[in-house]
Amino acid sequence: MLTLQYIPYREIMNLDTEGKIKKILKSVKENKIILIDGRLDPIEESALIQKTMESIDKRFKGIEIAGIIPNNNKLLIDKIRKEVARVILGRDEGLTIIGPATIVKEIKRNPNKIDLLLRK
Amino acid sequence: MLKGLKDFLNSITAIFKQKRHWKIGLYGPPNSGKTSLANRICQDWLGEDMGSVSKVPHETREINVKEKVIVKSKGKQISFNLIDTPGIATKIDYEDFLKFNMNSRDAKKRAKEATKGVIDAIKWLDSMDCVLVVLDSTQNPYSQVNITIIGNLAARDIPVLIVANKTDLRKSDIKKVTNAFPQYPVIGISAEKGHNIEDFYSEVLKLVRR
Q1: Beta strand pairing call for B76-84 and B22-27
Q2: B98 touching A (Cβ < 8 Å)
Q3: Which of B81, B78, B61, B82 is nearest to B70 (CA)?
Q4: What is the pTM of this model?
Q5: Which of A108, B35, B95, B207 could disulfide-link to B51, CB 3.0 to 4.6 Å?
Q6: Structural domain boundaries, residue A13
């Protein structure tokens, strides 16, 4: 059975990098595809890749990950709204999908959309 | 008076900056042609290869350093250490290597070394002065690995030149690479065939002077 788990960004926003990675990898290693309504920053993403590499074994082959950021060409009022939402809701702009490589074959990413291709 | 002093100090700084020995890293996903480019640079300026290349992914599994490479272009020159890094990936499955007629033991060994290579490549990011991000211009540039590498370099304020490699192949699409990373300089080359390599050296010199 395929499980898609939603993790609200506010649930991880106050964790340090190690805490975020631990939470993400725990779910991915349980063969869940996780969806976060926010983005990891590039340093966190590279730390996630490092930790993933350290964790590879007979069963765990790594991850597929894709993040998407909505168009940044926004009016000032939109930027202010976004900032207010970030502060109040703890939501960082964007979306992140992470899944185990044994289940997710590929995440095709174009500027404004993500296609998730699963293994048979 | 003050302006004169400032100009004098700036010119002294520029001299030291010019004489500085740079560390230039080659980063990118597996099979984008990092070692082919390293070999091209080393053949052109040292008359020797830097590493072995292969169609099997993760051929480079250790950091390789070639010291004191001196590149000249349009009357200017720079001296740098060239650092070829293993391809960065988010997954490594030894079974993928079996498709290349490798036996199970060798494939597992290669996978283990490749995971360590990825970790080392990321660790070395901090010590680079400039990075050439080598992408396969026949592939979709919007992969998360590319975005993570370039995002990391931006966060560390390390100058970046994106090298859209394999322009000799029919599927090559430099425009797609340029559109994906509009805030960075992009140069299309074929490391294997040597296409556009003079312009590439000129861009490398511009990069270290930024």
Answers
A1: parallel
A2: no
A3: B78
A4: 0.88
A5: B35
A6: 3-118
